[in-house]
Amino acid sequence: MRMGDGMSLENVPLTVELAGKIIGGLGSAFGIGWLARSYFVGTALRDAKAAAALARGLAEDQRSKYQQCDKNSRLMQDELAKLRVRLGDPDIPVDADNTTDTEDDLWGRPYADLPAHVRAMARSKPRVISVGNLKGGVGKTTIAANLAAYFDKTRGKRVLLIDLDYQGSLSATCLQAAKIEGLVSLADELIDGRADGSWVVKVAKQLQPALSKTWIIPAGYSLAQTESKLMLRWYSGRVPQDIRFNLAKVLLSPEVQDTFEVIIIDIGPRLTTAAINALAASTHLIVPTVLDRLSTETVSSFLNRAKALKQDLNPSLSLAGVVGTMTAEEPRLKNTELASMVDIKRALEQWNGESYVFDRWLPRRQAFADAAGRDIAYLKNNNVADLFKELGDEVAQRIGL
Ligand SMILES: Nc1ncnc2c1ncn2[C@@H]1O[C@H](COP(=O)(O)OP(=O)(O)OP(=O)(O)O)[C@@H](O)[C@H]1O
Ligand SMILES: [Mg+2]
After folding, report:
1. Contact 161/215 with Cβ under 8 angstroms?
2. Is the pLDDT of residue 17 over 90?
């Protein structure tokens, strides 16, 4: 049987299992690299011999990362060979070294229709903002939900929220705020190529009465499986369409273009199929970060990868800015936070004139934590609403709204 010519059901578990192994391999390569770096950077900060220890640590980290990539490449090669035999498909690549051995390569294949995509993105009426960072728990979802509230309540814009994190935190928060029961993962159809513009307009959940001009496409755990399956089928070259642009095609459809003015996408802390779709479909990127040394490093590595993907997939993507989150209480940042800001500004130089750190940072406030998963803090707390009015004004100015 040939993949993509209609896979038989008996092979679907194999496909999912294989996708899991490949993703697991990739994940562990980067996860171990990150852990090693965390360990060594942490040591350096505490140690009197900080500089020497840091240099040794980074060298070791590089060595360990290369070893992991090598191991990952062999793992993928083995899995591809097994898949070739099991499916009797001679077209599945023989040599993983000729295909990919890092996540960047995996997603960075040239896109045949890039000029047409660039033209279509230039005509996009709604601003499409992805909120992303590979670091978990830095306030991405909180910012997506509260910015939606800002654009709806303060600016009177029609907003579409898209949850592309299978954890579904944005969906839970917004649906609870609007007292909507039950969570069906609609994001699966949005990225697997089944959805079109009229489907979005029909099925998106309106967040009335909480936010009467805002709709949401929710996500749940099934999205993780959908993403793995899609990635593997695309990777083995057996799907006709380029799955990285499934979301972009829907958002560029006349129905979506004429219905919404701002589209905000919440990305999980991983470069998954859905995250790649988000970056390929967005006009702007907001990167929230905690202002400490480790988080700053992650911002830098995320921006590097986003920049590479921008070149390959979506040259129209602009960096709206980096926003500091969960900082010390006002009126001013701590010295260590100010130092992190300086590091971030340096890392942003690679975005050629687009670099921007929002003046409005978000202090640690109990109101955010109290609202998590069940309400939108903007609607419950005037201080939070004031913070987001300032941040929202800055965002609106950056994205030309
Ligand atoms: N400024 C803040 N002050 C206090 N708590 C905050 C603040 N911002 C976010 N939080 C809380 O921190 C937790 C993590 O925030 P959030 O879910 O927005 O992060 P995330 O980056 O989306 O996480 P993940 O990577 O898991 O998707 C939540 O409980 C949230 O309520
Ligand atoms: Mg989140």
Report:
1. yes
2. no
Q: Which of 73, 107, 141 is the last residue of a domain?
A: 107
Instruction: Calculate the alpha carbon distances from 388 to 157, 323, 361, 392 in Å.
Output: 15, 12, 10, 5
Ligand 1 neighbours, Cβ below 6 Å, are 136-142, 165, 167, 169, 268-269, 325-326, 362, 364-365, 368-369, 372
Q: Do 209 and 229 fall within a single domain?
A: yes
Residue 358 lies in a domain: yes
Q: 294 near 138, Cβ under 8 Å?
A: no
Distances in Å between the alpha carbon of 47 and those of 42, 43, 44, 52, 53? 9, 6, 5, 10, 8
Q: What does the pLDDT look like over 259-312, one tens digit per residue?
A: 999 999 999 999 999 999 999 999 999 999 999 988 988 999 899 899 989 999
User: Which element (helix H / strand E) includes 58?
Assistant: helix 50-87
Locate 184 and state its tokens. 């069906």
- Does 5 map to a domain? no
Find the helix or strand (DSSP H, E) in which 288 lies: strand 284-290
Q: Report how many domains make up the chain.
A: 2
Tell me the CA end-to-end span of the chain in Å, nearest whole number.
Answer: 51
Last residue of a domain, one of 107, 127, 158: 107
- Residue 212 has φ and ψ, to the nearest 5°, of -75, -15
Ligand 1 test: best mutation among 141, 387, 391, most atoms within 8 Å of CB?
141
CB proximity list for 352: less than 8 A, separation 6 or greater: none
**Lookup: tokens for 90:** 């001679």
- For 133-147, give one letter per residue: b (16+ CB within 10 A) or e: bbbeebbbbbbbbbb
Both tokens assigned to 9: 């059901």
CA-wise closest residue to 330 among 392, 375, 390? 390
Model pTM score: 0.78
pLDDT for 96 equals: 45
Closest residue by Cα to residue 276 from 46, 92, 104, 81: 104
Question: How many beta carbons lie within 10 A of that of residue 197, not counting itself?
Answer: 18
* Residue with CA nearest ligand 1 atom 2: 364
- Is the bond preceding 126 in cis, omega lying within 30 degrees of 0? no
